[in-house]
Amino acid sequence: MYSPALYGVISRIITHTELAEDVLQETFVKIWQSAEYYDNTKGRLFTWMMNIARNLSIDKLRSKDFKNSLKNQDIENNVSFVDEQNKVTFNPDVLGIKQLVENLKPDLQAVLDLVYYKGFTHVEAAEKLDLPLGTVKTRIRLAIIELRRSFN
């Protein structure tokens, strides 16, 4: 019965839909846990509930977690955005990286090819190459060290 009104107050303060829904849930939990503290001589039940919703919303906006979450962005959503904005494409041939990678040992080349050029995770590369995960990580590290030496 009170959900739409409370959600309306919360969503005006917190614009992120998922976060606003979480705060609505927290509001009802707090109302349930604090029901014994409601005093009808001080005001209506609805007003008391609205104040709880408003205060929790403001607390969420001021929280360190919320401020940090605004600084973090999903890389999947931003890679294409950056490329569209800057009209930048990754071309390893222009940088000369492809020749440097070709000078590496074949086992290091295979791991780099899967992880950096084809987008495999370390676990997926380990499965594809039928190697232990630690070996894949070690080969990536060794390949990066060799490439650094080539640049210096």
Would you kindly provide a written description of the structure presented here, covering whatever features stand out?
- The chain is an all-alpha fold and 152 residues long.
- It folds into two domains: 3-71, Rna Polymerase Sigma Factor, Chain: A; 91-151, Winged helix-like DNA-binding domain superfamily/Winged helix DNA-binding domain (Arc Repressor Mutant, subunit A, Orthogonal Bundle).
- The protein contains ten helices and no strands.
- The protein has helices at residues 3-13, 17-33, 45-62, 64-71, 75-86, 92-95, 97-102, 106-117, 122-129, 133-151.
- α8 crosses α10.
- The longest helix is centred in the last third of the chain and has 19 residues, at 133-151.
- The protein is rod-shaped, with a radius of gyration of 27 Å.
- The relative contact order is 0.07.
- The mean pLDDT is 81.
Kindly state the number of beta strands.
0
The average pLDDT value, as a whole number, equals 81
Unreliable stretches: none
* CATH C-level category of the largest domain: Mainly Alpha
Sheet having the most strands = none
Count helical runs.
10
The CATH superfamily of the largest domain bears the name RNA polymerase sigma factor, region 2, helix turn helix motif
Distance between the termini: 68 Å
In N-to-C order, the SSE pattern is HHHHHHHHHH
Assign the CATH topology of the largest domain: Rna Polymerase Sigma Factor, Chain: A
- Give me the Rg, rounded: 27 Å
| Helix percent band | over 70%
Give the overall silhouette.
Answer: rod-shaped
Count of domain modules: 2
CATH hierarchy: architecture of the largest domain: Orthogonal Bundle
